[in-house]
Input
Amino acid sequence: MVKKLEETGLFHEINKTEIERMLKCSKSYERHYKAGEYIFRQGDKPTKIYLLLNGYIHIAKDFASGKRDVLYMVEEGNVFGEMFLFADMDNYWYDAIAAVDVDVLEIPWDFFYHFCENACKHHQMLTKNMLEMLSKKEFNITKKLHIVSTASLRERIAIWLIDSMDSEGKVEIRMKREELADFLGVARPSLSRELMRMQADGLIEVSKKYIYIKDQNAVEMLYG
Output
């Protein structure tokens, strides 16, 4: 696990020996969650910061009507649940749900607030890395707000595609169609129909695992 942690942003520039010392000092531990299992739920009391070691999870808000709003997706190597600790909130406002089988490092939050008497350099580096990750997460949430604030579903899809594509105009579909619909804030049938319309218009080509952008300029013009 330590080798895996060295590759994450949270432990950037912290060596193996220092990581092992920090895991022991903080009493952190690794835990496995099966797909669909809750890592924490709305109303639970925050006590830990979580680092996703593999797979991906959904940060979602469930409503009494049964509707689920997927706020964003956490990918391998990223932290989650931290905003409730640093904001001094008493309860989680949303759920963290394993989208696939995942392994998570759970770090007691006290470790981030209390430095040892020597104020170890690697402890300071961990805090610096956490602040950088928080900045990136705020940027991603801002992008999500940009997507859902657009007027039409086609505009939302266009923004998501351009933001997610690789250098060749290919977008890997990492979410299930229902999950993507929740992320874009629409019903699944509406999303499927609009994707087919965009394909018929020659803008994209949809396959099972990928969406290929055939006319990038035209897709960009949808929200320009």
